[in-house]
Amino acid sequence: MHKNYLLLLLLVVLFGACRKGEPAEEHFFGRFQITLLNLPGSGKAEIFLGTEKLGEIVPKASEVLELLLPAGKSGKLKLVDAASSTLIADTNVVVIPNIKQAFRAGYSETLKIKGFISDVNVPQDSIRVQVLYNIRKPFNNHPEADLHLLDLSMEETGIVVKGLKLDDPAPRILTFPRLGEGDFPVGYFCKLVDPKTGETIVDAAGGIFVFIVGVPEYYGHYVFVNINDDQGDTPETNTFTATATPL
Questions:
Q1: 92-128: buried (b, 16+ CB within 10 Å) or exposed (e) per residue?
Q2: What three-state secondary structure class fits 100?
């Protein structure tokens, strides 16, 4: 009787573990977590693994799409803008059992950015900054530049972001602790330097401009700083600006 009871108990346990619709997820499945950042001008994106459409996602900061996929499945994970069919980002992936892989992408024609974006979780007393380089006027023929940060006395700080390129977010992420308090928050000026000549790239104002200021709404946020030359249509009137967009 005792043996029969143990056998019956074993069968119940096995049946419960293997019921249809409840596979042993830790052995046979992995998860992808997809986030599409809420950037200016972004829209709905379609998600593919190879040619298989996995789903859609809209760019809301609070929305994250989680996908359960068979372990071992592999291919190119792609995010494509639903309206224009523009490729936002892609990467080769393998589904790993019992592992959640996170992918965070952004697409904005306004900011001239598309691709995978670094972690946006930022301490509440810090600002995390990624630079976008968009110096595009025909008379500003500088497809690459180095960015030098200056303090409020216009002195070099030693902070340099090298290798800025058009349509390619800077790979170096800057993290600033609290920059200042009160009516006069601390910040940084900056200048662009031609990496080939070592000379400052000048605009109508001499080439030095405000990079970022420590205002309260930036703390605890990931901020894109878009450096562009939209101000002025001639070399005599054109100035560089840095526009901050917090997520």
A1: ebebeeeeebebbbbbbeebbbbbebeebebeeebbb
A2: strand
Instruction: Quote the tokens at residue 115.
Output: 């691709």
pLDDT at residue 66 above 80?
yes
Q: Which residues neighbour 170 within 8 Å (Cβ) at sequence distance 6 or greater?
A: 130, 131, 132, 133, 147, 161, 163, 164
DSSP symbols for 184-244? S--EEEEEEE-TTT-PBPP-TT-SEEEEEE--GGGTTEEEEEEEEEEE-SSTTT-EEEEEE
Tokens for 164, please give them. Answer: 């800025």
Phi then psi for 11, rounded to 5 degrees? -65, -40
In this model, does residue 32 exceed pLDDT 50? yes
pLDDT digits (tens, 9 = 90+) for 183-203: 444 789 999 999 999 999 999
Q: What angle do CA 247, 110, 52 make, to 5 degrees?
A: 80
**Length of the chain in terms of residues written:** 247
Write out pLDDT tens, residues 230-244.
Answer: 899 999 999 999 988
User: Could you tell me which residues are beta bridge partners of residue 242?
Assistant: 227
**How confident is the model over 70-104, as pLDDT tens digits?**
999 999 999 999 999 999 999 999 999 999 999 98
Cβ-based neighbours of 152, under 8 Å, separated by 6 or more: 186, 187, 188, 189
Threshold 0.85, pTM exceeds: no
- Integer angstrom CA distances of residue 219 from 108, 123, 176: 23, 8, 9
